[in-house]
Amino acid sequence: MSASKLKTFKKLWPYLWPQNMPDAKTRLLLASVSLVLSKISVLIVPIIFKYAIDGLSEPKNLVVPIFLMILYGGMRLTSSLFSEIRDITFANVAQRTLRQVILRVFDHLHNLSLRFHLDRQTGGLTRIIERGTKAVETLVTFLTFNIIPTIVEIILVSAFLWVMYGMSFSIITLFTMLAYIVYTLKLTEWRIGYVREMNRTDVEAQTKAIDSLLNYETVKYFNNEAYEHNRLDESVKVYEKAAIQGRITLAYLNFGQVFIISIGLVLVMGLAAQGVINKTMTVGDIVAVNTFLIQLYIPLFNLGFAYREIKLGLVNIEEMFQLLSETLEIKDAEQAKPLEIKGGEICFDKVSFHYQSNREILKNISFIVPAGKTLAIVGSSGAGKSTLSRLLFRFYDVTNGSICIDGQDIHSITQKSLRRAIGVVPQDTVLFNDTILYNIAYGRPDAAFEEIMKVAQQARIHDFIQSLPDGYETRVGERGLKLSGGEKQRVAIARTLLKDPKIFLFDEATSSLDTRTEKAIQENLREVSKNHTTIIIAHRLSTIIDADQIIVLEKGEIVERGTHQELLAKKSTYALMWKRQQEHKGKEIYS
Ligand SMILES: Nc1ncnc2c1ncn2[C@@H]1O[C@H](COP(=O)(O)OP(=O)(O)OP(=O)(O)O)[C@@H](O)[C@H]1O
Ligand SMILES: [Mg+2]
Q: Is residue 494 packed enough to be buried (19+ CB in 10 Å), middle (13-18) or exposed (0-12)?
């Protein structure tokens, strides 16, 4: 095993040997004792066998052999009992370890920045976690239920043989074992490439099939069924080849293993036969030795499989641990205090920002939204409006300048308190694949149903929900795709209202709605956000004419600011936008 694998193992150790779970160690101890006891019971079986057979071959009375037969059954039972005890005690520790690992990775992923998550495919992340945790489970299982018990058994059998029949038996057995293990590991090493290829192509074929079915409509639009068929076939073909190779190499492995065992058995049997001829051993001894060895080889058959799984598993675990060592981009400052919210005044002071250093997105942005007032941000697509909202929510840190809420730099307060204070209705709403009720309640999971209905009414979605056959229990589908764009937006507004933050941030929150519904919601929102500081990002200027201040953003810079009337009077960018939209609106009415 290479050094890096050992390192992975070391990182895993604290989970396997938990520090803060006192009863885990007791359990491990109990499991180990049970392990040894069960193995000893197994080893007594061949010895009972021997005495029974010897007793039967010269039957003087039948009592002893019958008693031995019963004891034989009893020992088998005892062994099974101890091994079940071992498995149960251990399963407890193993499962808890697994739970800790899963939660640790999951929490860490939620702490990583938006930038990290946008760069990664969520599917890829879940697969890493799935494979990693599965690998931890496999590793623990094989180690405790297979490898360690087998090692214990080899040692015990060798000792037994030595004591009962002399050194040569024990040495032949040990050598056979050694040859068997070395051969298995070497051959498994050679097979790993094929097995890996098999797994890889299997996943690839699966992904292709899923992707193709997800794009069902697109496939039909372009009549590309045959194309998809061939694409899938390419992966399956490679899989087919790898699978056949895998089977052939498995045959080599199995046959070689049996070959080595047979040689060992023949040697030991020969030795035993000689013992019988020399009258130093009985027929019962031959049976006992044979049983010893066969019993020993059975668990070894799985060794190659276990070795491969552990080896591949360590790679997967390493991949998962790599996620854990991913550094956090957005961190609470050392002495971060919770935000002390008063009126909710927001202040951007000379803020500059870029996602990648070669492309400036926001340049020197300064503005103040006084407590309880409303700011509207307008501007063409890509100007940086949503970016402003992400900075306020601290999904990213500003490159230059600072953002303050009630005079406290958001850099120096805890993220939790900051995010508690701000309610965002984002531009693209994604819903959880659950019921409408669940999705609205997400704003405040402990809210009463009456409160949920109230915010649904304010967001003008209550009547629609009531009209559905399943009402609030209607499921919204993956990412909420069973709802229309406007319905989704209203669910998003409702859940943000339920959160009841001090500051509201609506990013095109009503853009998918028809003008009438939009007007109605806007009136409600104005009512709700009366004493709240509000930032509205909008394309449709008619929705923001009442804002206390309007900022026009172009290519990351503020080009104009003022109230609706002031900006119209300027007869510049805003006035032009307004004029264009008014013309457009005329068309909308008559079409
Ligand atoms: N994660 C990101 N990484 C790199 N560039 C980004 C990222 N997110 C946004 N951008 C870029 O930043 C610019 C501003 O994006 P932003 O989403 O703030 O625009 P916007 O004003 O909200 O536009 P729209 O009105 O279309 O929503 C865009 O040119 C966009 O391509
Ligand atoms: Mg945007």
A: buried
Q: Please tell me if the CB atom of residue 474 comes closer than 6 angstroms to any atom of ligand 1.
A: no
* Alpha-carbon gap, residue 276 to 281, rounded angstroms: 5
Which residue from 117, 353, 355 has its CB within 8 A of the most atoms of ligand 1, so it is best to mutate? Answer: 355
Q: CATH 3.40.50.300 spans which residues of the chain?
A: 346-435+500-590
Q: Give the mean pLDDT of the chain.
A: 86
Least trusted range by pLDDT, from 1-10, 102-111, 350-359, 489-498: 1-10
Say what the pLDDT of residue 122 is.
66
For ligand 1, whether the C-beta of 100 sits within 6 Å is no
* Least confident interval from 298-302, 307-311, 392-396, 554-558: 298-302
Query: With bands split at pLDDT 50, 70 and 90, how would you rate the model's confidence at 346?
Result: very high
Q: Is ligand 1 within 6 A of the CB of residue 116? A: no
For the structural domain made of 3-324, what CATH number should be given?
1.20.1560.10
Question: How many angstroms separate the CA atoms of 275 and 263, rounded?
Answer: 18
Tokens of 479: 């990412």
pLDDT in tens, 32-77: 888 888 888 888 888 888 888 888 777 677 777 788 888 888 888 9
DSSP state of 435: B
Ordered strands of the 400-405 beta sheet: 359-369, 346-356, 400-405, 408-409
- What is the CATH class of 346-435+500-590? alpha beta
Residue showing tokens 């000792």: 159
What is the rounded CA–CA span in Å between residue 160 and residue 270? 19
Instruction: Name the pTM for this structure.
Output: 0.74
Range list for CATH 1.20.1560.10 in the chain: 3-324
Measured in Å, residue 380 CA sits from the centre of ligand 1 at 11
Map residue 589 onto helix, strand or coil.
helix
- Tell me whether strands 374-379 and 359-369 are parallel, antiparallel or unpaired: unpaired
Which protein residue's CA is at the shortest distance from atom 18 of ligand 1? 384
Q: Is the pLDDT of residue 436 over 90?
A: yes
Q: pLDDT grade, residue 533 (50/70/90)?
A: very high
| Contact 385 CB / ligand 1 (< 6 Å) | yes
Report the alpha-carbon distance of residue 348 to residue 369 in Å, rounded: 9
Beta carbon of 390 within 6 Å of any ligand 1 atom: no
With a 6 A CB cut-off, is 386 part of the ligand 1 pocket?
Answer: yes
Closest ligand (CA of 380): 1
* C-beta 536 within 6 A of ligand 1: no
- pLDDT at position 589 is 47
The verdict on the CB of residue 55 being under 6 Å from ligand 1 is no
Q: How is 145-194 classified by DSSP, letter by letter?
A: IIIHHHHHHHHHHHHHHHHHH-HHHHHHHHHHHHHHHHHHHHHHHHHHHH
Task: Provide the β-strand partners of residue 356.
Answer: 359
> Residue 497 carries which side chain, given as an amino acid letter?
L
Q: What is the mean pLDDT of residues 333-355?
A: 91
Test site for ligand 1: of 357, 385, 429, most ligand atoms within 8 A of the Cβ: 385
Q: 162: which residues sit within 8 A by CB, 6+ positions away?
A: 169, 170
Distance 587 CA to ligand 2 centre (A): 26
